[in-house]
Amino acid sequence: MTESNKKSIFEPAREWISENKLRAVGCLWLSGITGSVAYNWSKPNMKTSVRLIHARLHAQALTLAALAGAAVVEYYDHKTSKNAERYPRFINMNSYAQKK
């Protein structure tokens, strides 16, 4: 596989994540808590409350990592000027000019 083919395979996923950051974080949280509950349920000699607390903690850590990743993606997109004008076009800076 050439380098251009590798980029074309991951490009649609990257674009979707870039456009739907919070949805991606939510899906990651849901899959993280589901996987953690399944993993903790396989361990015997654990109370149900402890299993649920561990699942929540694992999902919370995964969510924080996903939010940090989304912030990095947003920063990268803004720095590459692909979306640099995405937010300023919605804000009319002249209406917020300081009055003398």
UniProtKB/TrEMBL annotation:
Keywords: Membrane, Transmembrane, Transmembrane helix. It is found in: Mitochondrion. PROSITE patterns: HIG1 (PS51503). Coiled coil: none annotated. Residues 1-85 form the HIG1 domain. Signal peptide: none annotated. It comes from the Eukaryota. This is HIG1 domain-containing protein.
